[in-house]
Specification:
This protein has 202 residues and is of the alpha/beta class. It has helices at residues 3-25, 57-67, 82-90, 104-107, 110-117, 129-136, 140-150, 160-163; strands at residues 29-34, 47-50, 71-76, 95-100, 121-124, 155-158, 168-175, 178-184, 193-194. It has one domain: 3-Layer(aba) Sandwich (Rossmann fold), CATH 3.40.50.880.
Length: 202
C-alpha cells in the first residue's frame, strides 16, 4: 500500500470517527420554551390517559394544574416540539419542553434522565409504542419516570403514550408474523418484564 493510500485511509477513518461521535452526542433533542431556570414548584400526583386522535385541551389543563406552575415535559421517540407552544398557550407554567429520545443510546445518556427528574409533569406523546418499549425499557429513562411517579408527580399520555402507562401495555413488538403485545409496564410499577397474552375466560 502506498503512502498516499495510507493517508487516505487514515483520513477516512478519522472522518468516520468524527461523524459517529457527533451523532452520538446529538442523538437526543431537547426543545424548551419559558424560563431557563428550573421551577421549585410542588406538583400534585395524577394520571391523564388519552385514547389518541385530537388532543384534549381539558386534559392538558388538568395536567398543568397538577404541575402547579412548574416545568412541563413532553417525551417522545420521534417528532418535534409542536406540543410546546400548544401547552404553553393554555397553561401558566415555568417552562414547557419536549425531549425526543430516539434510541437506546439516548435513553442511557444521563442527561435525558436528569431532564425528566427535573420536570414537575411528564406527558408521553403518541406514535409507535414499540419504540418506547425497545428504546426506554431497562434504561435510566424508565428509572426516572418511575422516580417521578413515586415522588408524586403527575404523568399523562395519549395513544402510544397511553398504551405504555397501564399495568399491561400493548407493545406491538413484531417477530416475523407474530406480535408480542402484552408487557408488564414499569411506568406505574417498578419493573418491566415480558408477559404472555392475557387469557380471557369464556
Amino acid at each position: 500500500m502506498s503512502l498516499k493510500s495510507v493517508r487516505l485511509t487514515i483520513l477516512f477513518l478519522l472522518t468516520m470517527l468524527l461523524f459517529s461521535t457527533a451523532a452520538a452526542a446529538s442523538s437526543y433533542q431537547y426543545f424548551r420554551i419559558g424560563e431557563k431556570a428550573d421551577s421549585t414548584a410542588t406538583p400534585v400526583a395524577g394520571t391523564a390517559l388519552m385514547g389518541g386522535g385530537k388532543d384534549l385541551d381539558e386534559a392538558f389543563r388538568w395536567l398543568c394544574q397538577k404541575a402547579n406552575g412548574g416545568d412541563f415535559l413532553v417525551l417522545r421517540a420521534r417528532g418535534d416540539d409542536d406540543y410546546n407552544s400548544y401547552v404553553k398557550g393554555m397553561c401558566k407554567l415555568n417552562s414547557v419542553a419536549t425531549l425526543v429520545i430516539p434510541d437506546s443510546a439516548a435513553a442511557h445518556d444521563p442527561a435525558t434522565a436528569d431532564i425528566i427528574r427535573h420536570a414537575e409533569a411528564v406527558f408521553i406523546a403518541g406514535g409507535n409504542q414499540a419504540r418506547y418499549v425497545q428504546f426506554w425499557q431497562g434504561t435510566p429513562v424508565e428509572d426516572a419516570i418511575n422516580a417521578n411517579i413515586a415522588s408524586g408527580k403527575p404523568i399523562g399520555g395519549t395513544s402510544a403514550g397511553l398504551a405504555v402507562l397501564g399495568e399491561f401495555a400493548y407493545g406491538c413488538l413484531k417477530e416475523g408474523l407474530v406480535f408480542r403485545c402484552w408487557l408488564h409496564l414499569g411506568a406505574c410499577h417498578r419493573h418491566i418484564r415480558q408477559q404472555p397474552p392475557i387469557q380471557h375466560s369464556k
